[in-house]
Amino acid sequence: MRVIIKPKRGLGRIEVEVPSELAERIKRLSKRYNVSEGRILEIVLSESFKEPEEDVERLENEVRELEKKVGKLEREWAPLRYKAYGVSEDNKILAIELNALLAENSQLKRFLRKKIERNPELRGLIQYYLR
Fold it and tell me: How far is residue 38's CA from residue 4's CA, in Å, rounded to a whole number?
């Protein structure tokens, strides 16, 4: 693997041939931590990496256990979320029907020359369910 280091300013650059074993380790680290290979090299060259203060394997095991718990909770939550979506869609349909009935009622009152009552609270509620 050939690495080319360019300065932020100027024309100089350094080319280095990295051994294949080291290149493989860099690629593995890149995939493991989801960081670009260039960033890994930058960290290694600037020696800005930190040694872990705690046992990394124990922490990784804890993360796996937490992921399992999250999966379990997600399986419990999914049916509730589906039912809530169904209820919200039903509410939308009912709001549309109620809006149509209110409009029809207003038209009938106009036809009968009766006083039309405005109900802003009900209109606001309908708009809430239509969102």
Answer: 10
Rounded to the nearest 5 degrees, what angle is found at the Cα of 38, between the Cα atoms of 34 and 42? 105
Q: Is the CB of residue 26 less than 8 Å from the CB of residue 41?
A: yes
Query: pTM for the whole thing?
Result: 0.47
- The residue among 43, 50, 42 whose CA lies nearest residue 8 is 42
Is 78 within 8 Å of 86 (Cβ atoms)? no
Average pLDDT of adjacent 10-residue blocks, the chain of 131 residues: 72 77 86 84 71 80 95 94 94 94 92 89 89 85
Task: Give yes or no for a contact between 29 and 35, defined as CB atoms under 8 angstroms apart.
Answer: yes
Could you give phi then psi for residue 53, rounded to 5 degrees? Answer: -85, -25
> Which alpha helices (DSSP H) does the chain contain, by range?
20-33, 37-46, 56-111, 120-130
Alpha-carbon Rg for the chain in angstroms: 32
